[in-house]
Amino acid sequence: MSFPWAQAYEPKAPLMKWLDQRLPLPRLVWNSVGGGYEVPRNLNYMWNFAVLAGFALMLQIVTGIVLAMHYAPAGDLAFESVEHIMRDVNQGWLLRYAHANGASFFFIVTYLHIFRGLYYGSYKAPRELVWMLGLVIFLLMMATAFMGYVLPWGQMSFWGAKVITSLFGAIPLVGEPIQAWLLGGFAPDQPALNRFFSLHYLLPFVIAGVVILHIWALHIPGSNNPTGVDIKSPQDTVPFHPYYTAKDGFGLGVFLILFCATLFFAPNYLGHADNYIPANPLSTPAHIVPEWYFWPFYAILRAFTVDFILPAKLWGVVAMFASILLLFFLPWLDTSPVRSGSYRPRFRQFFWILILDVLILGWVGGLPAEEPYVMISQIATMYYFAHFLIILPLLSKLERTLPLPNSIAESVLHGEKRESVPYGVQAKPAE
Amino acid sequence: MATVEHTDGTAEAAPPTGGEGHRRRDFINVAAVSFAGVGGLAVLYPLINQMNPSADVLALSSTEVDISRIQPGQAIKTIFRKQPVFIRNLTPAEIQQANSVPVGDLRDPQTLAERTRDGKANWLITMAVCTHLGCVPLGAAEGENRGEYGGYFCPCHGSHYDTAARIRKGPAPKNLEVPEFEFLSDTVVKIG
Ligand code: FES
Description:
Number of helices of chain A: 16
Oligomer: heterodimer
Structural class of chain A: mainly alpha
Bound molecules: FE2/S2 (inorganic) cluster
CATH topology of the largest domain in chain B: Rieske Iron-sulfur Protein
Distance between the termini of chain A: 36 Å
CATH superfamily of the largest domain in chain B: Rieske [2Fe-2S] iron-sulphur domain
Shape of chain A: globular
Number of domains of chain A: 1
């Protein structure tokens, strides 16, 4: 689970020795995120986002637990109890805004973390399971965030719940029973609100469990790095603590500045005004949108407007789920042996086009379903699937990659120019 | 390891495969595991089924509505089983418009007559739940957008329904659903 040159855990204080022989918890921490975990020495700031996502998860759990002390998951009380938190509970406004914006920031850092993995090929062997567990976490996050957004029982809560649970109604034959089973009725109401609260409280702890598996699976091969080259010798690594605890600490400071700026100066910027209107089953808001972090997927959902063998509605649902499930197959769609996008000039261009494509999807996903936005979402959806199903497999066959550095240490110490040796060929001795 | 005791006190290992003892043990294994499996499934059932609509939600509710005040061309929204319902009094022109469409051209082919009661073709009663993802379409209240076909328009993803509330354009797969209803008199309709 570690490199042979990693510093072993050696308790000095008698109490720690005593503990180590009975419950070696400090040893586990030391080996996972302490001096005992050797990490490539060349990680850049894109590697900060894992720790930031972990921090955001803790933030959500802590603020969520205290909010649950004041919230009532009952149809006629839910909206009022949220207002009660905002107006009457001591610092309730702070806690609720921190929780609401915390969700947004959790998604921001998670998306950056995912894109980091996509660019540097962190999903490739031997880290396929790390990637797949990460996707599981992402799916759980989406479910948690969706159910959390329903809890204030405002107009967007209600109609968001209605629209999303109707997705399941699109499944042939079993769709409607499934929808009724999810909601405990024919429309979102008391039973739905209650169970969403129960699950919204549960899932973050499930996420925390999967995070542990994610880290465990990561620590078998160790972290990837910007060159994508494997760790070969002690010169390639530094201990996680103090080197990366310090770097992550700095990143956390920057994150907290941005988070607090939003929290104190624009707490409603990322939300939707309609959610301050109590839920009304008789009137649909003029423009239903989910929270911003779902917009790309919402755009894919709405991109299908023509029946083709199956009804358009079902296509939209299938495509939306497929857009994420597809990523589970990514390690086998991209077969290039070179991990890092830095050494794949063509891949790099398509990577940035993909980012642009996802941003466009996000942009149209937040807009009303009108022309030309429907057309734009259709093209962008097509490109999204083409990127993973056509472009990536072809690229990995056709692309001429750049020469890789011999080792992480060499790329750090001599700069990039010096190691222009084709992949797999021994370097000449340095002059 | 299973052994067979001999009367003279020496022990002899049982044959590794076959033999009476092993088959009995296999049987016990299979039986125990299947019994536990069935038990586990039986425990799962109430855990899953509790999420289905409960008895009070399912209890068939019906709504009686007085329709005497709805003028031709007007529509109202009411509630049935916690979901909104449209009751619309069609004008002769709207009926004409609905009947002039060739049924074969429709996504969900149905005639206006199939969606209304004999002799009361002007009373169009449908769920106000878009068959796409469940929004309440516009078009009941005065001045609301009725879409390109003069019926209802769902703003969520742009589904257009015609004057018989049939889907004509947009992502919704089906016509607006017609609930069970009957006329108790000329002015009172019972839904459900
Ligand atoms: S819910 Fe009506 S068009 Fe989507």
